[in-house]
Design goal:
The protein is of the alpha/beta class. The protein has two domains: 120 residues, Rossmann fold; 100 residues, Orthogonal Bundle (Arc Repressor Mutant, subunit A). It has eight helices and twelve strands. It has a five-stranded parallel beta sheet with strand order 2-1-3-4-5, with helices on both faces. Helix 4 packs parallel to helix 8. The radius of gyration is 17 Å and the shape is globular. The N and C termini lie far apart (40 Å).
Length: 230
């Protein structure tokens, strides 16, 4: 690549920002901000940013609110970084539109594994050619250009939401287990809490593509098993 991949680091702790810069700048071009509001402004001005590492706990505007605002105009993958490891914090991060989660303290190997996985998936689903456009009632999925339309209007999915939709479409008519879905998309071993991660992303996806999200007709639940698109 002629240009390095661009990563925005957002953390109010200058020591954490310095550590992340040291770990990443050999392979990536890094920028940084110290709060959520500045992060939102930065992404608006620099939409070519490839990935955002976003701390949850920050003064003024926390990472959850910043993510929600960024998701209004950007689908760049967001890796949440926080000292908290409680399940409720993970779910709040995912509900706001985040793609993955890394708890402090972390190793260089853990950080790079998460970053590389998110970037690989993002590039794959943005640039990979496919053979067809799939219609699901008023919904059209352009699998060539990684675009989804509802009654002709573009639907702004995150790359994780799109990845889930595409995985289910590629297995159309078959129940995809929660474990299979998680390990296919996240490339990680399925753990007891992983089902909740999938559930939150599926709920977010349904809010965007279903006429009545509480009564889904596209992405249906196979209770005790997983999800299916008929």
């Amino acid at each position: 690549m002629s240009e390095k991949t661009k990563i925005l680091i957002v953390d109010d702790d200058p020591d954490i920002r310095n550590v992340l810069n040291l770990l990443l700048r050999e392979e990536y071009e890094t920028n940084e901000t110290s709060n959520g509001a500045d992060a939102v402004d930065f992404i608006k001005k620099n939409p070519e940013t490839d990935l955002i590492i976003l701390d949850v706990m920050m003064p003024e505007m926390d990472g959850i609110e910043a993510c929600e605002r960024i998701r209004r105009f950007s689908n760049a993958p967001i890796l949440f970084l926080t000292a908290k490891s409680a399940e409720k914090d993970r779910l709040a991060a995912y509900r706001s539109g985040g793609d993955d989660f890394l708890s402090k303290p972390f190793s260089r190997a853990e950080l790079l594994a998460k970053v590389n996985s998110l970037l690989r998936r993002y590039r794959q689903y943005l640039g990979k050619p496919a053979s067809t456009t799939v219609s699901l009632g008023n919904l059209e999925v352009d699998m060539i250009n990684h675009m989804v339309y509802n009654a002709g209007e573009a639907v702004p999915l995150t790359e994780t939401e799109y990845a889930i939709l595409e995985c289910l479409l590629k297995n159309r008519g078959r129940v995809v287990t929660t474990q299979e879905l998680y390990e296919t998309i996240w490339k990680e071993t399925f753990l007891p809490g992983s089902g909740n991660t999938i559930m939150v992303h599926v709920l977010n996806l349904r809010r965007k593509i279903e006429e009545v999200p509480s009564e889904p007709r596209i992405v249906r639940t196979a209770w005790g098993k997983g999800y299916i698109i008929d």
